[in-house]
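Z., the sequence and structure:
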Amino acid sequence: MGSRLAGRRVVLRPLGSDDYLAWREVRTRCHDWLVHWEPRPAGMPRPSEDRQSFVARCATRERDRQLGAGYGFGIFVGDRFAGEINLSSIQRGAFQNSYVGYWIDESLAGHGYVPEACVVLFGFAFEQLGLHRLQVAIVPRNTASRRVARKLGLRGEGIACRYLEIDGRWEDHVRYAITAEEWVERRDRYRREWLEI
C-alpha cells in the first residue's frame, strides 16, 4: 500500500539502500540547515549517517510500514532526492491520528515542493489509510516549516510548552492539525493549487 505516490512535480517513495549516496550528500551539505530542528536528547550523539545506519533505518521504516505504524517517504523532484516526509506514531482506535514530519534540501526550499508533498501525503493518509487527524508540531522560530503550514491553511492549535527535546534542549512547539472533514472541504482546492498542471 502506498509504495509510490506522485504529485505534479514531486514523487514520494520509500528510501532504500540505493538512495544512500544522494541522501548522504544532501544531509552533509544541509547539516546546519537541518540539525537545529531535529529531536535529539541531551548527551545523545548525533545519528550516524554511514551506509550501515542508513540501511538499518530504511529497514525500520519498512517494518513500520508493514505493521501500519508509520510511512516514511523520500521526496524526489524528477530523479533528484530532495528531502523526506513521513507519517509517524500512527494511532488507531478512537484516535485515528498520525504525526507529519518533513524536511527539504536547503537549495530547494521556497519552491513549494514541501506543501505539494504534504497534499500528496494527506490524500494517502485520509483516503487510503482512513486516518481522521494529522498533526504537525514545529519549533516557533522555524519560519520555513511554519510557512508550509500557513500555505496549506492548517489549523493552529496553540503552543505546546517544552514539547520535544531538540538538539539537547526542551523546545516549545506550535501545533497545527487537519482532520478528515477539513481534508474533504479543501481537497479540490488543494489539488487545483498544488497538483494540477
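The chain has one domain: 5-195. The helical segments are 20-29, 31-34, 51-67, 113-128, 143-151, 180-195.

Let me know what you think.
H.
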